[in-house]
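Lab notebook: predicted structure, single chain.

Context: the supervisor wants predicted structures on file for every construct in the current expression panel, including those that have not yet been purified. This is the next one on the list. No modifications to the sequence; it matches the entry in the shared construct table.
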Amino acid sequence: MTEDLSFRRKPLTPEQRQARDAARRIEAEKAMRDHEEAQKAFHANRERLKAERLAREAAATKG
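Prediction complete. Output recorded below exactly as produced.
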């Protein structure tokens, strides 16, 4: 039985490997920035909603 090796990738040159690693690093940094921005927006929204809830509860106890 003959093994088909046509699916194997060609080895990368050092320059190609370096370019690939740089692109991956850039993508990872962008993903981290996006995640941090989403977390900040989430926490800001949560604090805003908490303040609104506390204001409603305070108004309800006074009235």
